[in-house]
Amino acid sequence: MAKIIEVNKSTGRRKVDEELTKLQGKKKPIDLSKYFGKINFGEDGLTYQLKIRDEWR
Question: How far is CA 12 from CA 7, 17, 21, 25, in A?
Answer without folding.
Answer: 9, 9, 15, 21
